[in-house]
Amino acid sequence: MEYLNISFSLLFDPLSLFFLAVIALVSVPSAVYSIGYLRGSYSRGGTILAWSLMVAFVLSMALVVTAGNAFLFLVAWELMSLLSYFLVVFDHKHEKSVRAGTIYIVMTHIGTAFITAAFLIIYKYAGSFDLSAFKQACLLMPDNVKNLVFIFLLIGFGTKAGIVPLHIWLPYAHPQAPSHISSIMSGVMIKTAIYGMVRFIIFILGVNSLWWGNLVLVLAVVSCLVGVIYALMEHDLKKLLAYHSVENIGIILLGVGASMVFIKMGNPVLAVFALCAGLYHLINHAVFKGLLFLGAGAVYKATGTRNMEDLGGLIKLMPWTAATFLVGAMAISALPPLNGFVSEWLTLQAFFLGALAVTGSYKIFLSLCAAMLALTGGLAASCFVKAFGVTFLAMPRSAHAREAKEVSLSMKSALVAMSIFTVMLGLAASLVIKVLVVVSGCATGVDTAGMNFTLNNFTLAPQAGTYLSVPLIALALIFVFGAAWALAGTGRKRVCEGKTWGCGYYNLDSRTEYTATAFSKPFRIAFSFFLLPYTKTEKIRESFYHVKSFKYEVFTTPVFRRYIYEPALNVIVKTAQAMRRIQPGSIHVYIAYIFITILALIIFMGRS
Amino acid sequence: MLMNIFLFLILMMAFAMVAAKRLTALINGFRAQSFFLFLLMFMLAYRADSAELYIVAALLFLIKVILIPRLLRRMVKRIKVGEDLGLSVNPTVSIFAAIVLAYLAYAFTGMITGIPAFFVSISITLIGVFIMIFRMKALAQIVGLLVMENGMFLAAASVSGGMPFIVEIAIFFDVFLAVIILGIFVYKINSLFTHIDVDKLTELKG
User: Fold this and answer.
1) Does the ipTM surpass 0.95?
2) Residue of chain A whose Cα is closest to the Cα of B206
C-alpha cells in the first residue's frame, strides 16, 4: 500500500501565495460582514454553525492552493466542495436551496471525477502523488496521453470554474447561499479552479500543442458572452451577479488561454504578460464581485427580496450600500480608473501584442478574441446600468423597498473595506503588475528578471508616445467632473421639480417606472437567436369590449438546459428505469445475485 | 485422520440441512454441524496445547451449540408458524445442487491449496447461501447465515491457523448479537404480516 504513503507537504511558491492572498482579501471582509448579516436572521445555534462552516470552508480553500501533493489536493478539493454544498443548502427550509444544492453537488462531483481520473493517469507515470514527481513524469508522457489528461483537467476544473457549458450549477448555487458565502464562493472558490488550471495544466503538464490554448480561448469567449447575456436577462440581483461570475471567469481564462498559446509559440514575454493580465483580473474580480455580492446581500437583508422589479429608490434609504455598490458596478463594467478597467485593458493589450507578433489567420483569431472581450465589457456596463439603476434609483416599487433601512456597522465597514480594495487595486496598478510578473513567471517557468511591464506596453501609434496611468486618469476624471459641477453651479437657476424619470408628467407612481425587463428588451431582441425569447399572454374578458385583466409574460429559453442537460438527464432516467427491472424487491433474488456473482468469479478464477 | 472424519461430518450436516424440510430439522442440523466444528477445534487445541484455542472452542460450544439453537427453537415456538420451511426447490434437486456447489468449491480450492478443511469451509459457505436463497421462511435465512459463518470460521482456522484471538472472540459475540437482532426482526415481521415468508415481502421496493 505504498501509494497511500502521502506526505502532507505544503507548497508555498509565489503562485500559491498569490492565491492565499486572494482568499484572505475576500474572506476577511466577508467574515466581518457576516456578523451583521447573520444577526436577527438565524438562531444562536444557526449562527455558530454558519461561522464554523465558513471558517472550515476558507481553510479548505487555503489547503487547496497550498497542497504540495496531488492526493492532499484532492482531499482538500473535496472538502471544499462538500463544505460549500452545506453552505448552499444552509437555508434548507427553502426548497430552492435544496434544489440548487443538488445541482451543485452533482456537477461538482462530475468535475472531481474527471480531476481524479487525470491525477491517476499522471500517477501511473510518476509513481508518486508528489507534485514535483508529477512534473517530472509529465516530461516523459506520450502526447496522446497528455491530450487526454488536458481534456480531463479542463472538464474537471472547468466545472468548478463555471465555464460554459458546465456553468449550469453556478447561477443556482451561488445566489442561494447566505450573501457572505456567495461572496466567498463567487469571489474565491471558483478561482481555485483557475489555480488548478494554472498549476496542473501550465505548471505541471506543460502546454503541449497549440489547440489547447485555442480551445481555452474559444471556451473563454463563449463563457464571456453567454454569461453577460444571461446576466442581462436576469432580474434576481444575486443571480445576475452569479451570471457575471461566468462572464468574468471567461475574461480570466482569456488571459490564461492566451498565455498557453504564447508559451507554445515560444514567446515567453507575452506568455508571462497574458497570464499576468489574467491573474490581475482574477484578483480584481475576487474583490469587486465580493463587494457586489455583499452589497446585494445588504439589499436583501434590508428589503427581504432579491427581485429587482420590487426594489428601487434605495439610494436615499441606504446611501452607504448604494455608494459602495456603485463602486463595484463601475469596476465590473471596466470603467477607469477602477481595477476592472486595468485588468481588461491589460488583457486587450496582450491580444493586440499577440496579434502583432503572429502571422497569418491567427492574427484574425486573436483580434476577434479582443473584439469579443470589448463587446463583453460593453454589455457588462449596460447590465450594471440596469442593476444599479433599477435597484437604487427612481421610486420604490414595493413596500419592501419603501421600508428599507441602512444596514449595520459591521456590514457597512466590510462594504467600505472592499470598495477601498477595489479603488486601490486600480490606482496601484503598476505595483500590482510587478508582483504578478513574479507569480506568472513562477507558473510558466520563465525567468522574469529582465522583464518590465507597465500599463502601456502597446500603443496604436508608438510615435505618439501616449502615456497611460491610472492615477492620471483618476485625476483627469476628477478634474472634468469638478469642472462640470462648477459650471453647472454657475448661471441662472430655473428649477422645476419633477419626479425622477417622469419626463415632466405629473402624478406618476412607481408603476410607470422603467423596469428591468423593459431595459433589457433591446438586448433580448438583439440576441434573440441565442436567447429564443417567447411570450405568454392571458386575457380574461368580461365581454368582448371589456378585458378584465391582461397578463403578459416574457420568457427566454434556457438553451443549455434544454438542449444539453435535459436530454442527458432523460437518458439517465430511462437507463435507471430499465435497470429497475432487475430489482423485483425479493430478498431471495438479491441474495441470488450475490451468489451468482461469487460463483461466476470462482469459475472465472478456475479458467485462468 | 480424525480431523478428516470431523470435516466429513461437518460437510454431511450441511447436506442434511439442505435436505431438511422442517424448521426443527434445520436447527438440529446446524446444531450438529456446530458440535462437530467444536470437536474439531477442541482437537486442534489439544494438539497445539494452546489455552487460547481451548477458550475459542469453549465459546464455540457455548454460543453455537447451546445458546443459538435454543434461541432459534424459542422463536419457532413463539411465532407459531408451523414447521414447514417453504422449499422452493425440492430436497432431491437441492442435494444435487449442493453436490455441484461442493464440486465447484473443490475445483476452486484445489487451485489455491490442497487443504481439505479449506475445501469443506468453502463448500458449506456456498451451501449456506443456497439455503438463504431457496428457503422461504425468514428463520431459514438466519440459519443460512449461520452456516456461512461456520464456513468462514473453518476457513480462517484451516488456512491461517485461526484468526487473532481477540478477533475470534469478537466474531462470536457478533454472530450471537446478529441472531438476537434478526430474531427481533422475525418477530416484527411475524406480528405485522402474520407470516415470515420472505418471498411475500416484495412490496418494499421503491
Assistant:
1) no
2) A585
